[in-house]
Amino acid sequence: MRVRSLCAAVAASAVFLVSAPSRADERSDLDKGRAAYLAKNYDDADKRFRAMLDPQGGTLHDPGYVAEARMFWGATLMAQGKDAEATAVFKALILARPEYEPDPLQIPQNVQNRFYEARSDVSAQLNEEKLKRLREQLEKERKERERKAKEAARITALEELASEEVVTERHSRLLALVPFGAGQFQNGEKTLGFTLLVSEAALFAAAGVMFIDYRIDFNNYAAALNQNNATEAQGWLDRAKTARIVNIVLNASAAAAAVAGVIQAQVAYVPEKKEKKVRWIPPPVSWSPIVAPLTGAMEGRVTGGFLGVQGAF
Q1: CATH class of the 22-134 domain in this structure
Q2: pTM of the model
Q3: Per-residue pLDDT tens for 107-131?
Q4: Full DSSP string of 43-100
């Protein structure tokens, strides 16, 4: 840790030692040019400002120094009668530093007036640039929102795909031939299947009951006949015939319902059924290190440290 701090200090010192003379040289060049202007040595001042503000090999780089140099260079050009060139310099200054204000103690009033006229001339350009930057910023923010929205939609779609499993259930034509609503249940027609199941079962059950009743009546008929009781025997025989007719009707109705159910199941046959099942997705896990000093009981001195890892589930 000490070695790292020492290296950082050496690096910072090196940067300071390199930059400090550079800024001092820039300030010295600016002061020389300003002194030449104040001494009314306009040719010398013009020469100096041109050299230090040359776009290719100029000596000024600090934005504040550049702004001051342009102000005094514009004043120098006006003193030389080069008003158009001075206006161009002022406009360049204003575009680079819109908030710049000339020093009224060093800049003559006529130069200040020309400076403010130049500011008025470029105000529309400045406003247009501000609007352009604002539009660019808004467009950048819009694209960023769209990107985030698309990314969120993509993640949501991926989570949905990962959380759902499509299970395909193959159906059978043979199962559709089974009565009692088996084919309807297979095709997903649960209400119709339940109706057929209950009705067919009820009809067959009722037919079974009537068959039992028929057998009981017929046995009673035979017993009465053996006892030579013709009147009672005829009564039991009539009841047995009625029970037999009802049994046949119930069986026929049950069979008709079963056949109709099988035909409907074959007509509405669905070869397969796809079902989505929810799959559990574990929550994201995040880890972060924990680094903390341990202080002693006296004077708050650091006596050690703690290093660990914490996670969120």
Answers
A1: mainly alpha
A2: 0.39
A3: 999 999 999 999 988 887 777 877 7
A4: HHHHHHHHHHT-TTT-S---HHHHHHHHHHHHHHHHHTT-HHHHHHHHHHHHHH-TT-
